Give the backbone structure.
Amino acid sequence: MFDTFILFVHSWVRWIILILAIITIFMGLTGMSGNKTFGKAQNAMSAAFLGSMHLQLLTGLILYLFISPVGYQAFQSDANVMKEASLRYWAVEHITVMIIAIAVAQIGRVKIKKATEEKAKYKNMLIFNLIALILVLSRIPWDQAGRMFRGL
């Protein structure tokens, strides 16, 4: 039951992250092109994007370390991880790139909060969230349709 719940949350939070990333990137783009104030809505969206990424990391680590057979195989395979493409993808590439994406988003959030000019806040929102989105998109298993909408 718990395993299914964590897998369901991990599968669906992905879509929340993608939606929030697109919204924050759009906000950053429109904010840079005008004289808009970086207000509560922009701040809330930026925080929600990062918070959803942290939730995704937490559920992903629970899956990787305690639930997923891929995690078990990665720890027991005696260096065969790098030789098997599927195992390498899940045990190394997916988790590494996603952690980097979260770090990029976190750095962007800090830069947004520290920026004193409105355009700088929007620019940081645009650049860092765009980079994070590109990284996330590069490691979502698009070829595995069964993973896209778990629970339906």
Notes: The mean pLDDT is 91.
